[in-house]
Amino acid sequence: MLQKYDDRNASIKVWIKDKLVDRKNAMVSVFDSSVQGGDAVWEGIRVYRHGVFCLDRHLDRLEDSARAMAFSDIPSREFIKNAIFETLRVNQMTDDIHIRLTLSRGEKITSGMDPRLNSYGSTLIVLAEWKPPVYDNDKGIKIITSSIRRNSPMNLDSKIHHNNLINNILAKIQANHAGADDALMLDNYGFISEMNGTNIFIVKDNVLHTPHPDACLHGITRALIIETAKDLNIDVRERNISLTELYSADEAFGTGSMGELTPIYEVDGRAIYDRRKNHITSILSDAFHKLAINYCTKF
Ligand SMILES: Cc1ncc(COP(=O)(O)O)c(C=O)c1O
Fold first, then answer.
1. Among 40, 33, 38, which residue's Cα sits nearest to residue 112?
2. Measured from the CB, is residue 122 less than 6 Å from ligand 1?
3. Which residue lies with its CA nearest to atom 16 of ligand 1?
């Protein structure tokens, strides 16, 4: 599934460092750390007509990632919020918006890995675009299992939401070649971890299961779905899940800010067959949309 291009995005303004610029001038230096080494952290944030969704949770995670990567110049929460609100106001964006928020370690005085070469402060990018949820959430998606493993703390901890996305991109390329919508990634032990851009849940015998967040991003939508399920008295278990359990699940779905809740109808050629017909995915999706308003920050 290729994302559709919205013509309105041709003339957007983008926040770079400390000001808004036209899209055609929205550039970073060849010396920027994001170009040199993917040395940046990011968040994907959705904007609904009630405001920016889970803003503080996203900014907490951005700051945690930047601190884990020892960034010496993390802009204040107030500065980042102002940059986001200003970008949305100037572009007159109110609903169906997706923000790609990036904080790079900044520009270097000369190319090289050493963060001590960064003497110009960090680079903040607020890229807001008109972009409704990217998947067809009525039809759902089909996925294949990738041979690329999702990072565990043994190599590059998936708790850091960094811009070094090559393993996820390689997995997505495998999905494209296989004619699938997305790729499922396993952890180092062969248990399911997440998809290349979303977390994964399965439903079996009325119980909701999701992998421990050991080798996957601790998704904000994932956390909200767990909270919502508990409120609805749905039994939730975080545990190791094998591929066989996914193949025989009653329901399976992905979660993320980009696509919200997306049903999975096929994995590696096996149809996900809802034996119970309890439609827990739709129940959770409806509940999620109702509660979203409570998590929006007005601007
Ligand atoms: C690899 C990966 N997994 C899951 C997610 C979903 O996380 P969230 O629900 O916080 O958007 C993302 C979002 O950026 C992601 O990149």
1. 33
2. no
3. 197
